[in-house]
Amino acid sequence: MMNKKYFAAAAVAITTVAFAAGCGSSPSSQENTDKTFTVGLEPTFPPFEFADNDNFKGFDIDFAQAICDKMGVKLEIKNMGFDALIPALKSGQIDMIASGMDATPERSKQVAFTKPYFHDGYVVVVRKDNTAIQGFESLAGKTVGSQVGTQGVDLGQAAGAKVKQYDANSQGWMELNNKTCDAVIINKSVALYYLQQGGNKDLKIAGKAKLAPDPVALALQKGNDAQLAKVNKAIDDLKADGTYAKLYKKWFGTEPPKE
């Protein structure tokens, strides 16, 4: 995503964890259940991917597992630095990237992106008792918190707000709850997850999101059109049978937007 993906540092170690996928119902799926499908990610960006003790969790993890279930293969996770993901894909170390990656035109020169599965952006979060701020258009003259180095800072300044910059998102939530700022500008995905985890008791999203210019998609090697078609079909099937919506609501606390 915009925040993490611009500033993620390369990891010094690579960790591999294998997950057993359920057998598909078709004969072709049953024949392929001994095959491993290796997915690379950097697990430091909840709710998409994060480490919980020795386990990896998140929307991307569940989504990748569901895709592998549809294809009748075993999911294997490789944990590596975000900057190492595309080189690992191009060299054949991994079969797919599932790490909240924005499908930018520049990256499209190196990898083949699937159909989008999320579109992130920035939102304004306020306390529930705040009725004056209705979105970005209401921020002029207000004190707004946003993480240093992110587009949220630029958006706040462009709206005429006084922007307080902090190092971690947790500081923004603390200042908002302590009433030392009027609003926080933050990634939509992070905001939805925080509210879904109990933050909605005191906070709410005000107005509409400023969407990122590029959606989030999975990445595969260029030239492997057959594999890309399989993954895209799995994505279509997961959306058709309700699995995608179930996972989306699990991690973001709301129904996915209509396409």
Automatic annotation (TrEMBL):
All residue ranges annotated as the Solute-binding protein family 3/N-terminal domain in the record: 36-255
Residue span(s) of domain Ionotropic glutamate receptor C-terminal: 36-254
PANTHER family in the record: GLUTAMINE-BINDING PERIPLASMIC PROTEIN (PTHR35936:SF38), MEMBRANE-BOUND LYTIC MUREIN TRANSGLYCOSYLASE F (PTHR35936)
Compartments reported by the entry: Cell envelope
Keywords: Signal
Signal keyword on record: yes
Main location: other
Stated family: Belongs to the bacterial solute-binding protein 3 family.
Lineage: Bacteria, Bacillati, Bacillota, Negativicutes, Veillonellales
Signal peptide location: 1-20
InterPro entries: Iontro_rcpt_C, SBP_3_CS, Solute-binding_3/MltF_N
Cellular component GO terms held in the UniProt record: cell envelope; membrane
Any GO MF annotation of the entry: ligand-gated monoatomic ion channel activity
Entry superkingdom: Bacteria
A Pfam family recorded for this sequence: SBP_bac_3
Protein's name in the database: ABC transporter, substrate-binding protein, family 3
Keyword presence, Signal: yes
Chain ranges passing through the membrane: none
